[in-house]
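Continuing the series of single-chain predictions for the mutant panel. This is the parent chain; the variants come on the following pages.
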Amino acid sequence: PADRDTIERLNDEWVVTQLSSDAVTGLRHEINVLVSLGILSIQANGKLVLKQGWERRTPHIVLNEMRDSWGPELDIHNLFCIDDRIKFSLESRWEHVEVGWRFTSSPEDSMFDDDGDELVFDDEEYQLREQIFTENYTNWVSEKSGMGEFGV
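Parent structure:
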């Protein structure tokens, strides 16, 4: 029989395999995306850290999800498990205005308008992209099941 250290090592390897498998969790893919967006970096010891200036590179969809689901006022019991530092940092740097999301400047930022802020994401453009994606996805699902299943 295997000793305790061998069993623990095998269990650790199994956990890493499961978490890094796109077929099981997709976690590795999500980490790769966040690294490529410049939000996360991987240190030499393998630790994931937020990259300096990560707030500025936060995608539009994340800001919308924060506004609609897990922002500090909405998710008071932290059901989405988003660290408060992330919530408050995003909320302090991004403001949702009538036409979209505006990034609030700080002394280390540049490329802003006269108010010191920059409109980064236009909601109308986002809604158009979301509509196109939804239509394409609906068509794909319809081809895979329903009418497409019967060859009609």
